[in-house]
Design a protein that fits this description.
Layout (H helix, E strand, L loop, with lengths): L1 H19 L4 H8 L9 H20 L20 H17 L3 H9 L5 H19 L2
Helix pairs in contact: 2-4, 5-6
Length: about 140
């Protein structure tokens, strides 16, 4: 059951990204171009995502197990440190250069945008470098 729930959740998440325009690099770059032809429409997507996540976390904090019965593990670290800020900075730079976020990058392959392979390869190299650097 957890696998089916994860599959359905992933499909819904992917569809949500597509409907919101997060699979369109031009829309992302237009959102990030605050000094040019700025497209603020993704602010609505982000605000709704934050509201849904906030409600979900409030409900989850009151539970010991997931809906499927597996133990619920929520992040415990809440401090803002150098690692978090460095990761956020690198993520933002990559997002701004490519106009692609990690999750929609895989969606773009399915839509026939094979140029995204350069982004995915760079992202995977970054993950491997991080694991080596962090000793994981």
């Amino acid at each position: 059951m957890p696998v089916i729930t994860a599959l359905i959740s992933g499909i819904l998440f992917g569809l949500g990204l597509l409907v919101a325009g997060m699979g369109n690099p031009q829309k992302i770059l237009a959102f990030l171009d605050i000094t040019g032809n700025w497209d603020p429409s993704l602010l609505i997507t982000m605000a709704v995502a934050m509201a849904v996540s906030m409600v979900a976390f409030i409900v989850a904090k009151k539970r010991k197990k997931t809906v499927c019965g597996t133990p619920l593990e929520l992040p415990a670290n809440s401090k803002i440190d150098k690692r978090l800020l460095t990761g956020a900075l690198l993520f933002g730079i990559g997002w701004g250069i490519a106009g692609v976020c990690p999750a929609p990058s895989f969606t773009l392959i399915g839509l026939g945008h094979y140029q995204v392979f350069y982004f995915i390869i760079a992202m995977l190299i970054g993950v491997l470098l991080h694991r080596k650097w962090a000793g994981e």
